[in-house]
Amino acid sequence: MDALVNAQCAYRVFHQIAKEDELIYRFFDMPKAEVGTPKYVANQMKAKGLQKLRWYCQICEKQCRDENGFKCHTQSESHVRNMLRVGENTKKSIDQYSQQFKRDFITLLRSGHGEKKINANRFYQEYIRDKNHIHMNATRWTTLSEFVKYLGREGICRVEETEKDGLCIAYIDNSPEALKRQEALRQKEKSAKGDEEVSQLILQKQVEEAQKLKSSERPEKTENNELKRSDAHPLQISLGTVKKPTKEASVTKPKPPSNALSVMKPKSSSNKVSKSRDDSAKPKSALERIMMKEQRVKQNVTHR
Prior knowledge:
Number of strands: 5
Strand content: 5-15%
């Protein structure tokens, strides 16, 4: 009974003290840190969950806010105890952290960027956004460039260093699925190239056949029939004039009405006229013209 009374009294006293402490805390509540002060920056970093990596203890998985806090942590009993435990087999612990760091780094690179090229430092900033990531100061690689060169030597990533982009990395996918996809793409390109070559050969044959047909259909070269003058014989040219039919001869005159008397007339005169007209209409050669001229001269002589 006395113990119960004593417990109740202790509870009342403790409750009263807690109320007094709450009132004191509310009375002496300190204002917020001003913008730009170290306290304000520390509070902002703490709210984000990301702070300086150099003040992070990987063994204890504890993030300190500044150098003073990190120094106090390294002197704490828990940190010393963990360091003694790790010191028993240091190589094993470092290898474990290194393997986990490499696995997380490659997994994020493969899932986030695939086989695309990216700046190594920019990607490392993406990697350390995770608050619980493995820090590089716990691994066997002291710098990021050393780790990237290691990935290049192992054939895990393609490493390129340029003046413009700096040190860049690209993941090399050597999984069976990726190899199958690459083989399928190569086969597709090969078949497409073969189809293109076949189509080019067919087109070339068609062009050759068209050229053969064109050459066979060409007319043979005509002989040169130009007038060639020989030096031994003089040039002789015969000019023949063609009389054009007059309009009066070409126009057909209407026939007069036929009667019985006109039918009975002889047609010899009309035949002679038509023959003379036909003779005059035909083109005459030079010999004929000479003969006609001689006949006219003879006729004139006889008439005299």
